[in-house]
Protein: Reticulon-like protein
Amino acid sequence: MGKSEKIKWQLLLFLAIGCYLLALVTQQYLFNVVAIGLAVCVYKYGSPVLFKEYDERKKKKEEEAAKVREAVQTILRNKTFEK
Structure:
């Protein structure tokens, strides 16, 4: 997955946006169908390529939050047993 793969998915995404805008201007439902098809394809197959860095950062933050949540629960459990 290099730069060319990312560029391909970006172009498909912009094509979907272009079809959607064209559908708004021309009132042709066919362009909406094309835009929805392209958007679903980009979402399903292109999302891991386009948003790889974002997904990694999000996963790291979720793991850190889970550790903190677990530590807080442990502290709260220990406090209730001390009383």
About this structure: Residues 52-82 form the longest helix (31 residues).
